[in-house]
Specification:
This protein has 136 residues and is α+β, with helices and mostly antiparallel strands. The chain has a single domain, classed as 60s Ribosomal Protein L30, Chain: A (2-Layer Sandwich). It contains three helices and six strands. It has helices at residues 52-69, 87-92, 94-105, and strands at residues 8-10, 24-26, 31-38, 77-84, 111-116, 127-135. The longest helix has 18 residues, at 52-69. The chain is globular, with a radius of gyration of 15 Å.
């Protein structure tokens, strides 16, 4: 279910050009879906992958799977918060992360924040994705 999405991406001309995110998103009318934090947890419950990129690939897939279960698709995302335990490692992996982002979310860029945290609930997790979507 993709449907025509009419979320309005807002670019504030006074701010630096947004690359890979939106300054703001005005959500179209619809059903708001709050997705629980997704790590690289596999079906068996353990964290899959050792690197930030491997874990991002699994975690992003988990976000899309949960969103589809709620009747949505990646184009319905309005917000994505990325929690990482190692910001320099994430920054160093940006070139590899871009294609993985597009693999799961396409070229749709919601309002995004990246936050460095000391640790996540599962000590093996290097990142966790928390998203909000509005499904028309």
């Amino acid at each position: 279910m993709d449907g025509k999405v009419t979320h309005e991406v807002v670019v504030a001309p006074e701010l630096a050009e947004p690359v890979g995110f939106a300054h703001a998103v005005v959500a179209a009318p619809g059903r708001t879906v709050y997705l629980g934090g997704q790590t690289a947890q596999g079906p068996g419950g353990s964290i899959l992958g050792e690197s930030v990129t491997e874990q991002f690939d699994v975690a992003a897939g988990n976000v899309v799977t949960a969103l589809r279960a709620a009747g949505g698709s990646p184009s319905h995302l309005v917000s994505l918060i990325i929690y990482v335990t190692d910001v320099p490692a994430y920054r160093a992996a940006l070139r590899e992360l871009g294609p993985l982002y597009r693999k799961h979310f396409g070229r749709h860029y919601p309002a995004v924040a990246l936050l460095g945290v000391a640790e996540l609930f599962d000590p093996a997790a290097k990142l966790e994705l928390v998203a909000t979507a509005v499904v028309p």
